[in-house]
Automatic annotation (TrEMBL):
Belongs to the iron/ascorbate-dependent oxidoreductase family. It comes from Gossypium gossypioides. Gene3D superfamilies: B-lactam Antibiotic, Isopenicillin N Synthase, Chain (2.60.120.330). The lineage of its organism: Eukaryota, Viridiplantae, Streptophyta, Embryophyta, Tracheophyta. InterPro entries: IPNS-like_FE2OG_OXY, IPNS-like_sf, Oxoglu/Fe-dep_dioxygenase_dom. It comes from the Eukaryota. Residues 88-189 form the Fe2OG dioxygenase domain. This is Fe2OG dioxygenase domain-containing protein. The keyword Oxidoreductase applies. GO terms for molecular function: dioxygenase activity; metal ion binding. Keywords: Iron, Metal-binding, Oxidoreductase.
Length: 242
């Protein structure tokens, strides 16, 4: 109860259901959210029960994020430091989801269908499965691999790459078995990007590859994402397509 809050400005908070006021049905989970504007957080801001492990994990996430963005830059035909230089690896949110055993899993989901709003997601999960991805209108299980991480493209990287990289719709199903633990880290860019025009990387555009998205302010897009229900028919990216 000390940490419970729905205040978007709080860096560390505990909550049940992100979109409790807009969704048609509640997801079967509780969440501890840690918002990091940079990768040097004050340890005293972290709950004592997970302070040491969280600070150690953040240190490794920073290195991994920078490496992933170098590889993605090269895959786009850009200089290796391009995505890091525009702030993609700076700032993230770590969201620890706890899915207790569900007595009637057929009546709900752990998380409903959605695509991630950010640039890139690094997912750590325990041995209990539940994550599914949508491909060709079919749901496929993503089985946990011991010691493995799931890397997921977000909507903003789809925009930056002008659709060369695609975000994937996914969900988490509820289960009689539990508890399931999943800890996604959402890289959404440095806070300085919020008030700047955001759109496809200019170096990727040409007559043969025109922009597929209008430029927009990142803070407006994020406000639209978090104010809408995950199960809505119109996705936030749809508002910005050319």
């Amino acid at each position: 109860m000390e940490l419970y809050s729905r205040d978007g400005a709080k860096k560390v908070k505990f909550l049940s259901n992100f979109d409790i006021y807009t969704s048609k049905a509640l997801d079967w989970k509780d969440t501890l959210q840690l918002s990091l504007l940079d990768f040097d957080p004050d340890p005293s801001e972290m709950p004592p029960v997970c302070r040491k492990s969280t600070m150690e994990y953040i240190k490794h996430l920073k290195k991994l994020g920078e490496t992933l963005f170098e590889l993605l830059s090269e895959a786009l035909g850009l200089q290796p430091d391009h995505l890091n230089s525009i702030g993609c690896s700076k700032g993230c949110s770590i969201v620890a989801h706890y899915y207790p055993p569900c007595p009637q899993p057929e009546l709900t989901l752990g998380v409903r269908k959605h695509a991630d709003a950010g640039i890139l997601t690094v997912l750590l999960q325990n041995h209990i499965g539940g994550l599914q991805v949508l491909h060709d209108d079919q749901w496929f299980d993503v089985h946990p691999i011991r010691g493995g991480l799931v890397i997921n493209i977000g909507d903003l990287l789809q925009v930056l790459s002008n659709d060369k990289f695609k975000s994937v719709k996914h969900r988490a199903i509820a289960s009689h078995v539990g508890p399931r633990i999943s800890v996604p880290c959402f890289f959404s860019g440095h806070a300085s990007l919020l008030d700047k025009p955001f759109g496809p990387i200019k170096d990727l555009l040409s007559e043969a590859n025109p922009p597929r998205y209008k430029e927009f302010l990142l803070k407006e897009y994020l406000a639209k994402f978090f104010s809408s229900s995950l199960d809505g028919n119109k996705l936030p990216l749809d508002y910005y397509k050319e």
